[in-house]
């Protein structure tokens, strides 16, 4: 199952439903919502954390959180 | 008298909210703390038309009303408590034009509280470059509010914003979102149980720990007719609320906001590619760190030398002008050197905050967090620990306060515990004077001064101690805490000079007023203890005369003998003698012992104490350094400050927990005495052992 953690640099995808138990509300409030488009901008050394662009919001999240957010590649 | 209204400035982080605050209030502002917590409270006054005056509070930046930190909680507590004296008559939500969608989430929440709300869209000057166009009129209609397009960079739109604030009672207070639509059945039950309450406020109270006047959570649970939901159900409802709000916002922005992406120049991603590069990113970061250290040590030495000599001549001048006596001595030898000991730190603190605020304002600090997260996590820290650890080189107090945005409690606690190991500016004067005394003035490879390298080594030692102990704590501390990490990568901006200046002035002022008081008080107490004493102290001259009978002494030699006899028999002399057995194995005498004891209040007191101890009794004007170099070990007769005792002192100061203010702040931030006590005993224990080993090995 593809997640944000498996995105490659420059790839874009649509966020699918995810469980509230593992994804903090703050991330949702910053724009990480089901149905929104996400793109991987850059990764830090060791591929973690990830620098993503969700609907124009530039955020950095850790790989472990990213692995909980399922996506559908565009 | 002018009528005053309360205005709350609310907004997401990185929207330039503080710039808007600075534009509205100018330098007419006051920074304090919220009672009981260490969140900064910024307030200011702004004159409006029609004799109205606005009392403006700059609330901590938050992404929403669902608080996840102490800072964010401040916002909710104020907005939910109508009885608070600061409860706003009108709220100004500051939004960044480039992140309008996300910023509007908070706007809808504030408006739903029934507070008249103005929307200030900031950074309007960037619209053209980013090819953003907004239909303000339509947006105002849809959101049922008034909108001011402002640019704090160009100082535009603030007149109109003030007009909107003045006319606050014309604003609609209709909510954006019908709270019940989130979960109709749940809200129906709420309404039946609490018919008199505003449902949205009630919902906020239920979903977070907020003291809401009389109506707190326990009472909610006590109402028999009302069954609250499980925590995960509440979370699901919060998620639903967020989604519903975004739907509302998306529908509005679809008609009012257009961004021509083809025209937008993507400066940010190009700069990111360099600044966050796997190699260049680190090279640039370390380059910047080097520049900061250069400024703190090298550039600030000029104003510091000036301050040093000014206070020395001021003290001399006072002695010449005022009639001799106890009072003159108190001023010339106690108070003036004490004040000098505070003022001398100003250049360094100002330089450090100059850099930190430029890095934060420009948006670069978030990139550093991103680059360092993976590395720091290996040691149980977070990328966000970099900011506290770097700020710790100025002062551990603001640094520990800066840990608040670390989401994981364990990572945050470890950061708090290890930050005092970093070399704060208070250690610097101690290091500088000891290095000047015991490290030879040599150059290595023709460019690097050995003294400078030693200083750099001390800084690296501080970081190594911090990181090493973090690694140990991470290994042995059993705290389960959820780790998540979200950080916004703000757009790059050229820092606003005014904002930087205000930060520098504010931080410097808080040091002078806060730490300065303690330093001055201790300097005066020490001077008194050194200038008076029991018994033999008062017959010093006679005793010395009988002891030296038969020797031929010049007037000056005799005076010196009297002075040193007096010092040994003063109150402080007795105290120093009492602890001498404990510090002798480290290579110190009772004078250094006194300085160490007194610097448990604040490290920088060390140099001031020695200055006081040595200047008492010395007639000619000598610099402290020369005076220290002339000290001899009473047992061995060799210079007291030699390589071994110097290194031992350096190491002691590198590790020991000697700062009352830091202990107080740690108690506040961790809400327990356990952690500050842990720091005090563990750190000072390590310091004693390391200093002991170093002296015994090197002597």
Largest sheet of chain B: 7 strands, mixed
Largest interface: A-B, 30 and 40 residues
Strand order of the largest sheet of chain B: 2-3-4-1-5-6-8
> In terms of quaternary structure, what is this?
heterodimer
Structural class of chain A: mainly beta
CATH class wording of chain A: Mainly Beta
| N-to-C SSE string of chain A, H for helix and E for strand | EHEEEHE
* Computed CA radius of gyration of chain B, to the nearest angstrom: 30 Å
As for the CATH topology of chain A, it is SH3 type barrels
Low-confidence region ranges of chain A:
none
- Tell me the Rg of chain A in angstroms: 11 Å
What tags apply to this protein structure?
heterodimer, A: 74 residues, mainly beta, SH3 type barrels, 12% helix, 32% strand, globular, B: 699 residues, alpha/beta, Rossmann fold, 4 domains, 30 helices, 58% helix, 8% strand
Can you walk me through this structure?
The complex is a heterodimer of chains A (about 70) and B (about 700). By secondary structure, chain A is mostly beta strands. Chain A has one domain: Ferrous iron transport protein A (FeoA) (SH3 type barrels, Roll), CATH 2.30.30. Chain A is about 10% helix and about 30% strand. Chain A has helices spanning about 25-30, 65; strands at about 10-15, 35-45, 50-55, 55-60, 70-74. Chain A has a 5-stranded antiparallel sheet. The two termini of chain A are about 15 Å apart. The model of chain A has no long low-confidence stretch (mean pLDDT about 85). The model of chain B is unreliable at about 210-220 and about 615-620 (pLDDT under 50). In chain B, the strands form 3 sheets. Chain B has a 7-stranded mixed sheet with strand order 2-3-4-1-5-6-8, with helices on both faces. A two-stranded antiparallel sheet of chain B has the order 7-9. In chain B, strands 10-11 form a two-stranded antiparallel ribbon. In chain B, strand 2 (about 30-35) and strand 3 form a beta hairpin. Chain B has about 700 residues and is an alpha/beta fold. The chains are: A mainly beta (about 70), B alpha/beta (about 700). Chains A and B meet through helix 1 and strand 4 of A and helix 3, helix 9, helix 10, helix 15 and strand 12 of B.
